[in-house]
Design goal:
single chain, mainly alpha, 2 domains, 81% helix, 0% strand
């Protein structure tokens, strides 16, 4: 659990840095932080999968399939800001589209985190 929490905190910190540098138009640092945040997200997802092996997730009830659906949607949604970000690098008029893509993806990230915490809280630990 501790490893997952550290990785989750790191990912959230990096995502915060991504948002701040994006809003401040610090393009070089922003792009570096995007790469770091995506790698960190991937490792955090891996740790979440490993954490799930210690819980009876099916016993958590309906939140389990809801969380899984949100997690898959959220993971795929990270393509939206990446694609719109590349579009924005080529044409600054795409900035509003990029901001909407980021907002949607971050909202899905929060929903996924909340349902994940709910799921773990509702699932009994395996012996």
């Amino acid at each position: 659990m501790a490893t997952f929490l550290v990785l989750f905190a790191l990912t959230l910190s990096l995502l915060t840095g991504v948002v701040i540098t994006g809003l401040r138009a610090r393009r070089s640092l922003h792009l570096k932080l995007v790469v770091c945040a995506l790698v960190s997200l991937g490792v955090t997802i891996w740790a979440a999968e490993r954490l799930g092996a210690y819980y009876d997730l099916s016993a958590a009830g309906r939140i389990y399939p809801i969380h899984l659906a949100l997690a898959k949607l959220c993971t795929g949604a990270y393509l939206l800001p990446v694609i719109s970000g590349v579009m924005t690098l080529r044409d600054a008029r795409r900035r509003a589209l990029h901001r909407r893509a980021v907002t949607i993806t971050l909202a899905l990230t929060v929903a996924t985190a909340v349902t994940g915490a709910w799921m773990i809280a509702a699932a009994p630990a395996l012996p």
